[in-house]
């Protein structure tokens, strides 16, 4: 499925949200990118409200560190009993700590940015009362590099430490995955790689990695963060996939950081790249002959 279809599928899966909305062609009044006209066949009589119109723009916003913006418009009328304020929490719940994986390798999640209320005066004294909810779209791209891969090694280390967790880049991810207290979702992200020193045989690299832990229950999330950080501190190293050690430096934990955008555990992995020299071939005039 494409991203637009997965968002729709997520919305209609919420019974609490669906029962608040009008229906069109016997389906919940959820549309993208625009709603059918009020006089179009398919509406249940004069009941065209409440309804949802959503649209998104996958254009990177470097200021907000997002891959795009999702806009969800809630439209009600002053003649209905349900107002946008009652529907907004249900929309947020649909996208909270949820990972969507459309066709391809890119994974997306959403974080609430702002809500703007508005009113539109219409004929015959009716008034449309609405709210526009904006979410930042975050892209959790594949972090696989080349051997020795510090992120893949970190994924494997955390999976062995916390087998109940779902590790992005290690475990199989479904089209729609919800992070729960019983199954938190963890994403390891490579921030940068710098060469720190080199010898005749090894080039030593410093890879900075951030670990995101998605869990709706703050108490559970804090315990998990502490458990992972303590284990990494005591071990002092993570074994790479080529069986060489990656030494852990500058380990930091920030419980107050945005776990969707920034992560909570940050460390530098110090690992080596072996220099393999090809055996030089001797030129004909450089060979020695002995009788």
Structure, explained:
This protein has 5 helices and 15 strands. With 291 residues, it is of the alpha+beta class.
Query: Structural class, judged by helices and strands?
Result: alpha+beta
Order of helices and strands: HHEEEEEHEEEHEEEEHEEE
Total beta strands: 15
Strand residue content: 35-45%
Largest sheet: 7 strands, mixed
Poorly predicted regions: 286-291
Q: What is the molecular shape?
A: elongated
* CA-CA gap between termini: 76 Å
Major beta sheet, strand line-up: 3-4-5-8-7-6-10
Helix content: 10-25%
Number of helices: 5
Backbone CA Rg: 26 Å
**What would the average pLDDT be, to the nearest integer?**
89
Mind sketching the topology for me?
Elements: H1 3-12, H2 15-18, E1 23-24, E2 27-28, E3 30-31, E4 51-57, E5 68-77, H3 84-95, E6 98-100, E7 107-121, E8 127-140, H4 150-161, E9 166-167, E10 176-178, E11 185-198, E12 202-214, H5 218-235, E13 237-239, E14 245-253, E15 265-274
Parallel strand pairs: 3-4, 9-11
Antiparallel strand pairs: 1-2, 4-5, 5-8, 6-7, 6-10, 7-8, 11-12, 12-15, 13-14, 14-15
């Amino acid at each position: 499925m494409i991203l637009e279809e997965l968002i729709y599928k997520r919305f209609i899966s919420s019974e609490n949200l669906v029962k608040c909305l009008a229906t069109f062609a016997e389906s919940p009044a959820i549309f993208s990118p625009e709603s059918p006209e009020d006089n179009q066949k398919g509406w249940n009589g004069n009941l065209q409200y409440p309804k949802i119109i959503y649209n998104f723009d996958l254009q990177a916003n470097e200021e907000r560190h997002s891959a795009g913006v999702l806009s969800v418009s809630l439209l009600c009328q002053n003649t209905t009993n349900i107002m946008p304020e009652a529907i907004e929490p249900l929309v947020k719940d649909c996208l909270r700590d949820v990972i969507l994986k459309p066709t391809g390798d890119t994974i997306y999640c959403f974080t609430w940015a702002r809500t703007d209320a508005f009113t539109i005066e219409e004929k015959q004294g009716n008034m449309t009362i609405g709210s526009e909810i904006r979410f930042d779209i975050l892209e959790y791209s594949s972090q696989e590099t080349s051997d020795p891969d510090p992120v893949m090694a970190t994924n494997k280390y955390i999976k062995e430490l916390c087998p109940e967790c779902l590790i992005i880049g290690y475990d199989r991810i479904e089209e729609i995955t919800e992070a729960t207290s019983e199954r938190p979702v963890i994403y390891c992200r490579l921030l940068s790689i710098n060469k720190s020193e080199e010898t005749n045989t090894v080039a030593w690299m410093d890879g900075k990695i951030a670990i995101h832990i998605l869990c709706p229950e703050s108490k559970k999330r804090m315990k998990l963060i502490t458990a992972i950080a303590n284990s990494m501190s005591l071990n002092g190293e993570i074994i790479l996939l080529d069986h060489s050690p990656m030494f852990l430096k500058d380990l930091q934990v920030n419980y107050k950081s945005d776990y969707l955008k920034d992560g909570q555990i940050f460390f530098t992995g110090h690992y080596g790249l072996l220099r393999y020299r090809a055996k030089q071939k001797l030129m004909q005039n450089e060979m020695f002959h002995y009788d």
